[in-house]
Amino acid sequence: MEEAIRSKLNAPELLAYYEKNFQQLRDFGTAQHPTPMKIGGRIFGASETDIYTEPEKYMEEALCSLADQVSRPLQEPIFYHLAIENWIYGVHFTDKVFGADVFYKPETGMWNTRCLKTPVGSLQKPELAANETWQLAMRIAEAYLSFDVKSVFFVPPVIASPLNVAVNLYGAEFLIAMLEEPEAARHDLRIITDIQIEMHRWYREHIPADRLQMICGCRIQPPGYGQLCGCSTQLVSPALYEEFIMPLDDELLGVYPHGGLIHLCGSHGHLIPLFAKMKNLKSFQLNDRASEELALYAQGLREDQIIYLLPCDGMPEERAVEIARTMRPKMILA
Known about the structure:
Blueprint: H1 3-8, H2 12-30, E1 37-44, H3 55-67, H4 72-75, E2 79-85, H5 93-97, E3 101-105, E4 110-114, H6 132-146, E5 152-155, H7 162-170, H8 172-180, H9 182-206, E6 226-229, H10 238-253, E7 260-264, H11 272-275, E8 281-286, H12 289-292, H13 294-300, E9 306-309, H14 317-327, E10 330-333
Parallel strand pairs: 1-2, 1-10, 2-5, 6-7, 7-8, 8-9, 9-10
Antiparallel strand pairs: 3-4
Helix pairs in contact: 3-6, 7-8, 7-9, 8-9, 9-10, 13-14
């Protein structure tokens, strides 16, 4: 990388811009019933190189492409930022770490997982140091670090959440196992959670805190916050969530000094009373079906919990703002 490009990607004015916006987010989190605020998205690096085979070349090209866009965030009226998202294997990255058959469907542009043939309760913890998928993830992170650029956030692969991964690995059989073979379900959830914690800790130990974003774009948080995917929680009752999943989700977010955010995109409203009890759950990113239930979250969450809302046809921005005006949740609009 040419020194002129590196210099652009370490621009002091962009770093100051980031800190200014992070401070606004921190102030928003501590304010009493603040007016909804808006944030923008991420500007991500582009490369034609295959990240799976040549991550170092991919990283250099992606960073160089961002060097031409360093002034763009400064021209936006709301918070935008530069980022490298290496979502290898999509939302099935952790499935791949566990040795699942993860495959790409060109017709949808998405990754998928074929369920394991082994029974629930037999999952074995992989040895990360010898795991090919994890070695690729580390190689990508090390390539990013080698260029020493401070104005580009690094976003790891999707580590997801214990229940998401369990459902990916076993399908509906895992949901049945929680009812019929609870000890087997607990065993596998513990294994999944332990490996996810190990991965999160690796990123926290190796990527500088001011550059690490476990999720970015319209979900960006100040440094020191984590993230998990709660999509599959809509499939379980409050009783099952409280018994099997809630302690693990809270433990996973507890890896980060300030807790973190849960992404929800379905009908999860029945779990709101439990979400409100989780000490490490600080924010919610709602989109699609979850956005439509905004009023339930506004009514049922703690006052210190923040809602990141992506408006949709069922919850247009105008209606969301009216809910915020009358019910007064802390709400960030994407």
